[in-house]
Design goal:
- The protein contains eight helices and twelve strands.
- With 230 residues, it is an alpha/beta fold.
- It folds into two domains: 120 residues, Rossmann fold (3-Layer(aba) Sandwich); 99 residues, Winged helix-like DNA-binding domain superfamily/Winged helix DNA-binding domain (Arc Repressor Mutant, subunit A, Orthogonal Bundle), CATH 1.10.10.10.
- The strands form three sheets. It has a five-stranded parallel sheet with strand order 2-1-3-4-5, with helices on both faces. A four-stranded antiparallel sheet has the order 6-7-8-9, covered by helices on one side. The chain has a three-stranded antiparallel sheet with strand order 10-12-11.
- A hairpin with a 3-residue loop joins β11 and β12.
- It starts with a strand and ends with a strand.
- Keywords: Cytoplasm, DNA-binding, Phosphoprotein, Transcription, Transcription regulation, Two-component regulatory system.
- Pfam families: Response_reg (PF00072), Trans_reg_C (PF00486).
- GO terms for molecular function: cis-regulatory region sequence-specific DNA binding; identical protein binding; phosphorelay response regulator activity.
Length: 230
């Protein structure tokens, strides 16, 4: 992909300067905004590839910014916020954020999160119009409704296969329990979350050579799961 354009939305000038300086040293293109209204305007005019979004903006909460962006754009949004409670992360992710980075953060971690996001964008672009998903030794043939690992077919239950497909179609993105259970079961009750943990455990036994050190599916305790790009 061409060099992506990153929209930095942060009202704290020192933090905004830290982020933009970091991007500049890595030769990333960027534009910056200090308010929600400015961010929404910049997003509309420039159609950036990725947004780095602070939630504590002076004119509008960042959660509402996510919801407004999601009404017309699938642009990846990485939240950078001092709000560290699981409930805050879940609300942001359920509203449409792709990732969540808690302040204070290291520039190395920020760059790593960006690399993950860019790999996901590249994977989605390459997969456009393709019915086969490949991630390391894992391959899913959506048209045939089957999955293989190292060339051997995985014998999955219908729920396990659906769960695997949801994770694969959002590879690199943190998915909350609520999102996954809604996609798999069509609802998000507490017993669905309990079932999700059971099915995730059985799926990992079939997918991971070392379930205690997963290669494909990462747990975000109290929040949900992410399929890693191998």
């Amino acid at each position: 992909m061409n060099k992506p354009l990153i929209l930095v939305v942060e009202d704290d000038a020192p933090i905004r300067n830290l982020i933009t300086t970091t991007l500049k040293t890595q030769d990333y293109k960027y534009i910056a905004a200090a308010t929600a209204s400015e961010a929404l305007q910049q997003a509309t005019i420039h159609a950036p590839d990725v947004m780095l979004l602070d939630l504590g903006l002076p004119d509008l909460d960042g959660i509402e910014v996510i919801r407004r962006i999601r009404s017309w754009s699938a642009m990846p949004i990485i939240v950078i916020s001092a709000r560290s409670e699981d409930s805050d992360k879940i609300e942001a992710l359920d509203s449409g954020a792709d990732d969540y980075l808690t302040k204070p953060f290291s520039v190395e971690e920020l760059l790593a999160r960006l690399r993950v996001t860019f790999r996901r964008i590249s994977m989605l672009q390459n997969a456009a119009g393709c019915s086969v998903f490949t991630n390391g030794d894992l391959q899913i043939d959506f048209a045939a409704g089957c999955a293989t690992l190292k060339g051997q077919e995985l014998h999955l239950t219908p729920i396990e296969y659906k769960l695997l497909c949801v994770m694969a179609k959002n590879c690199g993105k943190v998915l909350t329990h609520t999102y996954i259970t809604h996609e798999v079961w069509g609802s998000s009750w507490d017993n669905d979350v309990a079932s999700l943990r059971v099915f995730m455990a059985t799926l990992r036994k079939k997918l991971e050579s070392e379930p205690d050190s997963p290669q494909y599916i990462q747990t975000h305790i109290g929040i949900g799961y992410r399929m890693l790009k191998v």
